[in-house]
Design a protein that fits this description.
With about 170 residues, this protein is an alpha+beta fold. The chain has a domain of about 80 residues: SH3 type barrels, CATH 2.30.30. Helix content is about 20%, strand content about 30%. The chain contains one helix and seven strands, in the order αβββββββ. The protein has a four-stranded antiparallel beta sheet with strand order 4-5-6-7, with no helix packed on it. Strands 1-2-3 form a three-stranded antiparallel beta sheet, with no helix packed on it. A hairpin with a 2-residue loop joins strand 1 and strand 2. The chain is rod-shaped, with a radius of gyration of 42 Å. The termini are far apart.
Amino acid sequence: MGARQEKAIMFLTLLMLLVWAGPGAAQEQEAAAVGADGDESGLVKYREPTYIYSSIGMRDPFRSLIQKVELSDEGDMERPRTPLESYNVSQLNLIAIVSAGDKAYALVVLPDGKSYTVHEGMNIGLHDGIVKEIRSDQVVVEVETKDHKGNKKLEEVFLKLRQEDDK
């Protein structure tokens, strides 16, 4: 190869390097010369990230977690729940029924093994059930339920006394 060909190859190589790195390199040098804050030192100054607290959808951290008892729909105060109201009516087991004159009492056992005596008008079950009637072989409990539309309706649940042949 002659000297003339070597110069031509060198010139073309240099030209390709300038074309390939030309526009990007010029922009990077310009960005480095003028910092992000507008000073011309070439250094970008550190800027603290900004954070904005939004309390939308969060509870107030200064409000007490213990809520006051509010009035229910009927306007009376919420009453404390008994252990009989900790279980669904269908989970209760009717063991015995005793009648004394015009009053009747029933003995029910909770799933935890504790037994309680119930009488008519007593609250029982998770869904504000009330013992409506105690018959000779069963206890009738009226339970307040809600349908799929949210309408309240009363439903009767029967706790039957276990017969000897029901083993």
